[in-house]
């Protein structure tokens, strides 16, 4: 089971990431582009970004116990994640993939160790 502390540790380990509140909750940015947000307890979940709506649909279909959305995010390439349903390895992959989606091309190029283009 992943925790907010895990989210923070993983996110801040990525290059050029800062923590900055977003909608009153912890948000994480790469070059001032939001790539991750911990939602309130009432809202539930962690917001991550995906490459496109096809990726979103695939994640949502893969495991509804882990991945969900709300009408607010309809048509938006993002997925909500139940933290208690993912382990640290899966959380690392989700956060890293979200970083790769939002990081500017130069940042991805400068940090091929994260998994972006060399």
What can be said about this structure in brief?
The chain has 4 helices and 6 strands; from the N terminus they run H-E-E-E-E-H-E-E-H-H. The protein has helices spanning 4-13, 53-62, 88-102, 105-110, and strands at 17-19, 27-30, 33-38, 46-49, 67-68, 78-81. Strands 1-2-3-4-6-5 form a 6-stranded antiparallel sheet, with helices on one face.
What does this structure look like?
With 118 residues, the chain is of the alpha+beta class. The chain has a single domain, classed as Alpha-Beta Complex (Aspartate Aminotransferase, domain 1), CATH 3.90.1150. 35% of the residues lie in helices and 19% in strands. The chain has 4 helices and 6 strands; from the N terminus they run αββββαββαα. Strand 1 (17-19) and strand 2 (27-30) form a beta hairpin. Helix 1 (4-13) crosses helix 3.
Task: Please give a handful of descriptors for the protein shown.
4 helices, 118 residues, six-stranded antiparallel β-sheet, Aspartate Aminotransferase, domain 1, 6 strands, 35% helix, globular, alpha+beta
Indicate the topology.
Layout: H1 4-13, E1 17-19, E2 27-30, E3 33-38, E4 46-49, H2 53-62, E5 67-68, E6 78-81, H3 88-102, H4 105-110
Antiparallel strand pairs: 1-2, 2-3, 3-4, 4-6, 5-6
Helix pairs in contact: 1-3
What structural category arises from helix and sheet content?
alpha+beta
CATH class bucket = Alpha Beta
CATH architecture: Alpha-Beta Complex
Question: Average pLDDT value?
Answer: 93
Gross morphology is: globular
| Beta-strand residue fraction | 15-25%
Low-confidence runs (pLDDT<50, min 5 residues)?
Answer: none
What is the total domain count? 1
Distance between termini?
33 Å
Order of helices and strands: HEEEEHEEHH
- The helix count comes to 4
CATH level-3 fold name: Aspartate Aminotransferase, domain 1
Q: Tell me the helix content.
A: 25-40%
Q: Count the E strands.
A: 6
Biggest sheet descriptor: 6 strands, antiparallel
Cα-atom radius of gyration: 13 Å
What is the spatial order of strands in the main beta sheet?
A: 1-2-3-4-6-5
